[in-house]
Design brief:
The strands form two sheets. A five-stranded mixed sheet has the order 3-2-5-7-6. It has a two-stranded antiparallel sheet with strand order 1-4. Helix content is 34%, strand content 14%. The protein is built from eight helices and seven strands.
Length: 236
């Protein structure tokens, strides 16, 4: 695996899943190199040589299902033709955000156990089904604080409403409470889905909330236009 000290250091702190049946997630075996969100890959675009300290963190919910990791990817990088990567490329390019300035990672570490859907609410949010889910989410938030402290991002782009929910349930006071957790195309269009000066751990950063890039009909022109406008405003 490519030796990037920051990535090696982060891997030492990844939350351990001791019983997948009570959290609904399983550990991921990382690949050597290539496209993919951390911790499946190194979270850098096409093997960038340096960790993007002070850059942009792209924060997804989780890495999908274990079936996707084991049977579909089977130790290979993700494809740029996947909806998430394809639409991220459109959004970031139009927003003048360089891919090599980004760290692609997840709020919830691991893959969903087989039988869970690939998208939507992650298993640990399902309190009745997974009794230790909330505890695991808290552990993942502590790990997110380590990731933030390592990268010191100037902006965190949160992909989808469940990343919002993950942040809001752990931030005290609830700095994101002014936003509808079910934010959608209409909400992105009609309001400023962007918050300045949010503290995560000891680091102050800005946060942008976007509709998840893999959402069906993601190419809604008005939505993309407003998301690009929102992101470009951060760098103007």
């Amino acid at each position: 695996m490519q030796n990037i000290p920051e990535i090696s250091g982060l891997r030492l702190h990844i939350p351990e899943i001791t019983d997948c049946t009570i959290v609904g997630m399983v550990d991921i075996k990382p690949i050597e190199d290539g496209l993919g969100f951390f911790p499946y890959s190194n979270g850098l675009y096409h093997g960038a040589k340096a960790f993007p300290i002070g850059g942009v963190m792209i924060l997804g919910q989780d890495f999908g299902t274990n079936y996707y990791v084991i049977d579909t990817l089977n130790g290979k990088p993700e494809s740029e033709n996947l909806p998430t990567w394809r639409n991220l490329k459109i959004l970031l390019t139009a927003s003048k955000i360089e891919f090599n300035d980004c760290f692609f990672t997840n709020a919830i570490i691991g893959a969903r156990i087989n039988g869970e859907p690939m998208t939507g609410k992650a298993p640990p949010f399902k309190k009745k089904k997974y009794p230790d889910g909330a505890k695991y989410l808290a552990e993942c938030f502590e790990f997110l604080k380590i990731q933030v402290a390592t990268q010191k991002p100037k902006l965190i782009i949160c992909m989808g409403k469940w990343v919002y929910e993950f942040l809001n349930m752990h931030l005290q006071p609830k700095e994101l409470s002014g936003f509808n957790p079910n934010f959608s195309y209409k909400e992105i269009t009609n309001r400023q889905s962007y918050i300045k000066a949010l503290m995560i751990g000891d680091h102050e950063t800005d946060i942008a909330l976007i509709v998840h890039p893999s959402t069906p009909n993601r190419r809604n022109t008005r939505t993309i236009f407003d998301e690009i406008k929102m992101l470009k405003s951060h760098f103007s």
